[in-house]
Known about the structure:
Blueprint: H1 4-9, H2 14-17, H3 30-33, H4 35-46, E1 51-55, E2 64-70, E3 73-79, E4 85-89, E5 118-120, E6 124-126, E7 133-135, E8 140-142, E9 163-167, E10 170-174, H5 187-192, E11 201-212, H6 216-224, E12 245-246, E13 257-262, H7 286-289, E14 291-297, E15 301-305, E16 310-319, E17 322-332, H8 341-350, H9 353-370, H10 386-403
Antiparallel strand pairs: 1-10, 2-3, 2-5, 3-4, 6-7, 7-8, 9-10, 11-17, 12-13, 13-14, 14-15, 15-16, 16-17
Bound molecules: fe (ii) ion (FE2).
Amino acid sequence: MITDAVRAILEDRIDETIADPTRAITLPPAVYTDPEFFEFEKDSIFMREWICVGRQEEIPERGDYLTVTIADEPLVIVRDETGQIRAMSSVCQHRSMVITDPGFLPEDKWYGEMSESSGNCGMQLRCPYHFWVYDLRGQLVGAPEMRRTEGFDRREIRLPNLKVEIWNGFIFVNFDLDAAPLAPRMWQATEYLENWHLEDMAVVDLGRLENLPWNWKVMLENVIEIYHADRLHLPIHEMAPASKMLLTPSSEDDAIILSRAETTHADYSFNATMKALFPVIDTLTEADTSVAYFGIAPPTMSFGTSADSLLYLLTIPKSVDKIDLVYGTLFPKKLLETRRFKEVQALSSSGLNDLMEQDVAATKSVQRGLKSRFAPRGRYSWQEEPIPHFNRWLVKRYRSALEMV
Ligand SMILES: [Fe+2]
């Protein structure tokens, strides 16, 4: 839906936001704060782009599933009987109960939001309401007491499926069944991160922070701009300083925007010692560890490298000023079996806390400022170069949605 308010926002000095980084200005504050604009983004971004929803090793066995809700669309991601990962709407095609929601809620859960779930569903998904049963491809295979219902044919009913693509172990889904493949548009990350062998890594310390009060774009901007590394994060980001940022051009057709900074030492990591607590990943070359990478694959995925691991964050949008943040750290699979892995890993992840506390303070406060009538159309430092790239990525999609009306 494109309202007059949305049109007005998209006519507000938008050309200047996608200018050369030396001349660009920030996006209109309303793109981060206006609920109508978020509704517009559902159609222009979330229903069209590849959306990262997790890692393939989260659902290793047949029947394993996880749920995720993207822009009010409840989805179930499941490994089917052939071992293939599928994504589909989890809205029952009978009377709309979400089939992965529980059929029993204790009184203390009557209020507030439904949580996501994961587990193994066997070979079927059954709606708790009236026991309509779907197979792992979404086909309705059972519906009790429907014989008297005229013209009802369960073979005609299935859960709407989404497109799925696995990139380096990350599960991406797309509501647009005609979407072009993701991998060619990830070429930069595929190339730069080749020696990490992300597909052979496994996620550890998977967690979720709920209802964080800022817009999804504020989150992604924070991950890719290094300008604040030498300021807000002083001194714990010194091993990948903003002054050593490498410019990384990208096209608005790419699915990823990368940020890079030269590291001061090979075994870099983000904790008080600035050193990795595990050995440097043995497939990495000297060239690989001389640069730290930060990237976003909008709208949900972002990551940052250390010499021994890769931290990723999934920004799950809930409303214009609310997100859930799913996080996990990838380590080489063989490292997980080594002695004291858990203990060292706990130290390693606690080292990130300072960084997180600072970023949360900033992003939460930026959202507060964006609501002000005095929120500026600001200018960028060269060390924020990836943000105008992100503006271009966004504006291209906003404009193509406008043209399609
Ligand atoms: Fe940060």
